[in-house]
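debug: dumping io for the single-chain case to check the tokenizer round-trip. Nothing else runs in this session.
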Amino acid sequence: MTFLILALIIVLLLLSRNYILRLEPAGIFAVMWIIFTVAVLALQEFIALRFSGVLFIVVSVISYIVGTIFCDFCIHPTPSGTKLEFQRERALPLVFILFIGAMVNPLYSIILHGFSLQALLSMQDLLNMNKGISEDRYFQGDVSNAINQFFLIFCYAAPLLGGFCYKWVGKWTRVVCLLTLIPGMFIALTQSMKMAMITGFILWFSGYLVSCFSYGVAIRFKPLTLFYSILGFMGFFGILFFSMVFRTGEVSEKTILDISEKFVTYALGHFHCFDMWFTTHEPASYAWGGKTFLGISSTLGIEERIQGLYQEYYQVGQNGYSGISNIFTIFRPLIEDFGEAGALLAMFIVGFLSKLSLKNLVAGNLTYLNQTILTAVYAYLLWSFVASFFTYMSYVAMFVLAYILFHFLQTKTETC
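debug: decoded output
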């Protein structure tokens, strides 16, 4: 089975190579799952696998790529004849306001959980706060109110617009654009919510890519850019690691070793969880999109969303390696929505529509709508190792706000 999966990975790489070079959604999706799959196959001595779920994941990604290729050959939008102009003078005040709004959420959350902001000045108080807020979240549910939920939208809109504006503004405004990543990092280090930070980086990157496609700018990695990117990734994983250490409430050699093991579990444990679920689940009635768009369906009372999304925890490791996880990727909700064959068809359709949106954006058709759709696509694909990005209503609301802000930041004029 390992050789079959590796053969399919080669096929996937060949099908997606051009999309990878252009950093299109299909290319990002393909390279991410190629890296994940090769890594988990290399560590299969320590991570228990049944392989059928892993095979389904690879086939699903190929189905997405095939949908993209089909759209590439069949659809050729007519250019709109308009020119898109970025309003640089509006970028700094807008991004700064979003940054301030984004910082309200984590600071207010600390107060809601009964802690003082003075706890930020002491390492021991900071550790106690991390542990306390983490316990509240898992044993008492989300401690929040309407005000905090409102400013949570800013935590996601700020990095998205920061990434979108970064390429088109001056030196000091670029600094503010980078600062939009701070709220997510602050949440990770003070409240042990890793996904807030991961989401911030995903949305910043998504905004940056969409802005490049919007203005027809080729994305090239210069040596200095590559160096800064490596430093950024090192800092990103460093903050993630220490946010997990702080969650325990103490810093010791034993804690660091334990967290190192958990780090691998969080990085690759989703393969085992989905693999186990895939080989044991029994088909039931389909949710027809209710699981993928759980944020909307739970708000409407159609589906119920619980803390952590899934109650099933699986022991990931073997041969002396341990770790538990309940992360099941985007492929579980797709199967719960449409069945296995339906999930593959859904991936094909999403691949087709993603490319269609990108083609129309480049052609200047329905620009603001397609910018919003494409940022949502990137976020959905980059978050695919966890679950559906549309599980949370705050994410959905953020895209509505983004659509409005795209209008504010840009104008369209007729070309001669």
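debug: round-trip ok. Residues 329 and 387 are 4 Å apart (CA to CA).
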